[in-house]
Amino acid sequence: MIIDLGLTDYEEAYRSQMELVSKRKLGEISDSVILTEHKPVFTIGRSGGKRNLLVDEATLKARGLKVLSIDRGGDITFHGPGQTVFYPIIDLKSRGRDLHRYMRDLESVVIGFLNGYGIIAERLKDRTGVWVGPRKIASVGIGVSNWVTYHGLSVNIDVDLSYFSMIYPCGMRGAKMTSLSDILGVRIKTRETTSMLLSSFQRIFNVKVEPLERMPEAVVI
Amino acid sequence: MMTDVKLPKLAEGVEKASVSYWHKNAGEAVKEGEDLVELVTDKATFNLPAPASGVLKEVLVSEGEEASVGNVLARIG
After folding, report:
1. Which domain range does residue A171 map to?
2. Is A109 known to be catalytic?
């Protein structure tokens, strides 16, 4: 099942994830994926802190930006329009019970997707995420409850990269972010890349991905 | 009867994880299958369900501390 939530508040999408996690644990649904773009927000995972946030409260307030501490692994990151976020709700009990392998698989989704644009992307040792040269294009941070996954993957398609200069992304000083638009030098429409990302996801995870329809409300397919 | 809560293997080649959050405090009742303790390895958090129902008698690894696969994190009685 693919659930396309469109543009969401972070908290709203988090609640949807938790509902699906409960249903997945009870076996009421099969492996699923939530797709969304978030309204601008900074989130800090379990390994992070506000020390990697480089702007003060007044600036955040003026820009209407929230900072949320959340229960995924990793440090601080930014989500906003132009960034496709994947929240797979997958039971890893039937997929080898290996958190690191799962994260490498999420990275493979993006590497395969970018190959379709002729872009060579790679993993860097001990630096979870997907990199194009020295720049990071996708971030991975996951949560698991009894081997059912939540949180996941964010891929910068046409996101405003200036937000990332307000933080040390993932707590790494000097880490520079990039996006598909940035690499190609043309503005890419985020929604037009979704089906290619989904196909890549399907190949890596061997799940049935049905055609995606766009509707004004959340779509359940 | 006491049941040990042990650190499971979270990934191939990973022998340690840190305790990031106890969902319950010592002395509280726990239910089999509900999230008991959150562990962190790399960019992943893992919520370990309680292996039995009862009372969380003893927490042996505190938040922020590291444990190895197989270590007893807590006891339920």
Report:
1. 2-220
2. no
